[in-house]
UniProtKB/TrEMBL annotation:
<keyword id="KW-1133">Transmembrane helix</keyword>
<comment type="similarity">
    <text>Belongs to the PMEI family.</text>
</comment>
<dbReference type="GO" id="GO:0046910">
    <property type="term" value="F:pectinesterase inhibitor activity"/>
</dbReference>
<dbReference type="InterPro" id="IPR035513">
    <property type="entry name" value="Invertase/methylesterase_inhib"/>
</dbReference>
<dbReference type="InterPro" id="IPR034086">
    <property type="entry name" value="PMEI_plant"/>
</dbReference>
<dbReference type="InterPro" id="IPR006501">
    <property type="entry name" value="Pectinesterase_inhib_dom"/>
</dbReference>
<protein>
    <recommendedName>
        <fullName>Pectinesterase inhibitor domain-containing protein</fullName>
    </recommendedName>
</protein>
<dbReference type="InterPro" id="IPR052421">
    <property type="entry name" value="PCW_Enzyme_Inhibitor"/>
</dbReference>
<dbReference type="Pfam" id="PF04043">
    <property type="entry name" value="PMEI"/>
</dbReference>
<keyword id="KW-1015">Disulfide bond</keyword>
<keyword id="KW-0732">Signal</keyword>
<feature type="transmembrane region" description="Helical">
    <location>
        <begin position="20"/>
        <end position="40"/>
    </location>
</feature>
<feature type="domain" description="Pectinesterase inhibitor">
    <location>
        <begin position="40"/>
        <end position="187"/>
    </location>
</feature>
<keyword id="KW-0472">Membrane</keyword>
<keyword id="KW-0812">Transmembrane</keyword>
């Protein structure tokens, strides 16, 4: 499996080839434009959402933006993930300040790393960059990394250590964020075709 770090390096090599591919990219861009620039019908939203972890959550999310094309919907979903991650970071900071139990405090501190600029937020920034470059396979990989970061907070990054039994709102926040990312994953797969 290609990690995000390896992918970033490969990206640099690819830049050398762009001149050669210019003409074919132009044709490809035209084709992509032709297929993705129209508002997608509700029927297509439901087809796309069948591939998501929670289809009804996906349909509600995408139908709240009815006249958007696939590219706009993807940007819209990235923006929601950003709001979710930012809200979760705020919650984690409050939890760190309020915890008296050292075990809990440690858990929230490591979650802050998982969600922060070295984790979910940083990976989301990179995902946004790749989206601007119309690298939709990269968007898919970036979104998977954000998902992994969040999973590290929820389940812990050491499989031998049982996950912290968290009674705060954090697991709920994480679960909703994961559902939104799952929508981003299916959108990026459909854009990549
Ligand atoms: C995440 O976004 C969804 C969709 O907009 C929203 O329902 C949910 O409340 C948000 N959660 C957080 C923690 O921001």
């Amino acid at each position: 499996m290609v990690t995000l770090a390896q992918y970033k390096n490969d990206g640099n090599e690819n830049e050398n080839n762009t001149m050669v591919c210019n003409l074919s990219s132009l044709v490809l861009v035209f084709l992509l434009f032709a297929t993705t620039s129209y508002a997608i019908p509700a029927r297509e939203v439901s087809t796309i959402c069948k591939q998501a972890k929670d289809p009804s959550f996906c349909s509600t999310l995408l139908n709240s933006n009815p006249n958007a094309n696939l590219v706009d919907l993807t940007q819209y979903t990235i923006d929601i993930v950003r709001v979710n991650v930012t809200n979760t970071i705020k919650l984690i900071n409050t939890l760190i300040a309020q915890s008296t139990d050292p075990k809990a405090k440690n858990h929230y501190k490591s979650c802050l790393e998982n969600f922060g600029s070295e984790g979910a937020l940083g990976d989301l920034d990179y995902t946004q960059e790749l989206f601007k470059k119309e690298d939709y396979q990269g968007v898919n990989l970036g979104a998977s990394s954000v998902l992994d970061d969040i999973e590290d907070c929820v389940s812990g990054d050491t499989p031998s250590v049982p996950p912290f039994h968290d009674l705060s709102k954090l697991p709920q926040y994480a679960a909703i964020t994961e559902s939104v990312i799952s929508v981003l994953l299916v959108l990026s797969i459909n854009l990549g075709h």
